[in-house]
Amino acid sequence: MCEFKPCFLIPCYNHGATVPAVVNGLINYGYPIVIVDDGSELATRKILSEQAKRPNINIVTLPQNQGKGGAVIAGIKQAQALGFTHAIQIDADGQHDLSALPKLINESKNYPDSLISGQPIYDESIPKSRLYGRYATHIWVWIETLSFAIKDSMCGFRSYPIDAMMNVINHNKLGLRMDFDTEIMVRFYWGNGDIRFIDTKVIYPEDGISHFDALWDNVKISWMHTKLFFGMLPRIPKLIKRKSPDQQHWSSHAERGTIVGIKTLLAVYSLLGRKAFNLILKAVMGYYYLTGKAARKASEDYLEQLEHYASENRLSLPKKLNSYDHLLSFGHTMLDKLVAWKGDYSEQHLTIHGSEHFDDLAKRKQGAIILGSHLGNLELCRALSSRHPDIKVNALVFTEHAERFNAVLKAINPDSDMNLIQVNELSASTAIMLQQKIEQGEWVVIVGDRTSVTKEQRVVWADFLGKPAPFPQGPFILASVMKAPVYLLFGLRDDSQAEPHFDIYFEPFSDALILPRKTRETALQQTVQGYASRLESYTIKAPLQWYNFFNFWQLSGKNNDND
């Protein structure tokens, strides 16, 4: 499809009071507007008849109320008859922030065969029951598509490619009410359709009109999900094949969750409790085990190396290890991170090993470098710091998502003292900024087991589980520049207990890392090997809590030092 000839589509049922303002917000774009009167009462019909006198406005009247889905289908059919290529759906109630329209339109121009949808950003006006209901639908949709590609299936702010939508409409008996938005998106995805999302602010006006029937619409939505679930089963082979190509560097393995996904996990936990969450998690991780080929292979390679090392050194491992349990452990830790961010874990959930070091550091109000890793749950330092609320913890992260995760932390727990600091590299300006934080008595947490995103070749090779592995230079050089005490922190879940409980290991690593200029390389090698040895020791304690799902023992081969 090369041509882009859109129209706006507004389904309307008794929204006469808000439609004129929506039309006014669209008129300057110069695209024709199709308004579908879905059997509205006389007052709204009069207002729509006035709107019909304006140029480029076409009114489609349905004699009886069909529901939102029926109205949208009627509008798409009318748009096709008028020769349009795309129908840009806008709800009539004024919920959508029209400032996002240029981005929606531009995305639709760039990807004319794709369904472009808003991904809602809600304010406090959204009713909690509606919010949690959306989370439940998100989970069902991820199951029905065996994918996290559909970030939101209920937003009525969309650009539909008309021919593709008519193919879905003509070959399926779709729901005509509130179930329509989700069903047409899932079925379009099943047909190998591409779906893209843009952030869209959504509000729920205090005097807004809602046509959501809590009983019958929920019944219809439940029936829809039942149909889609059983429709998914014969499509499993095809859906599993819809995979993105694997990429080499660890940073290229995109997180499969999103901000919505994080909040969804927390909502399921809050509403249903941990036991129900664990049942859902087993199913989700079972799917991920079957479809996540790269992560499964990395897990199997790691476990094979671990067992070989343990056998050679006559070390006992906690139990028979397998890749599914490894991935399941990662799922449990994701929830543990959320609960820690939320502030639900306190000292009673922790056994602190080395508490005297922690308390002494806090008592002296001494800033420090905390070296962590991707073993266990580093976010437990949030629970640990509850002993001393005046301690501010800064986590250094090399990811573009830091700003959004900071927003999630504040949304989950406005009183959180955890601050994520995004950096692209450990530059002089980064060192100065962190030095100021340490001088103010704050802690800086940085992981020492991930190679640099931009300077991958700058590594120190150290023995880990019987095989040389590349560790980043940056964290250790930074610690030497800071001239601050360095501590190691490991937070391991105790899986032998019925209720969540964790062992926190807090131990001194160095009063101040010193890398003399003349023997810098040797000193750095010894320092990194010391870290790798401690990491190895704790990995043996909790082998399934090691969460580096890539080939840890080799570089990607991409020389990006000069990028």
TrEMBL record:
Residues 8-124 form the Glycosyltransferase 2-like domain. GO terms for biological process: glycolipid biosynthetic process. GO terms for cellular component: plasma membrane. The keyword Methyltransferase does not apply. InterPro entries: Glyco_trans_2-like, LipA_acyltrans, Nucleotide-diphossugar_trans. Signal peptide: none annotated. It is found in: Cell inner membrane. One of its GO terms (molecular function) is acyltransferase activity. PANTHER family: LIPID A BIOSYNTHESIS LAUROYL ACYLTRANSFERASE (PTHR30606), LIPID A BIOSYNTHESIS LAUROYLTRANSFERASE (PTHR30606:SF9). This is Acyltransferase.
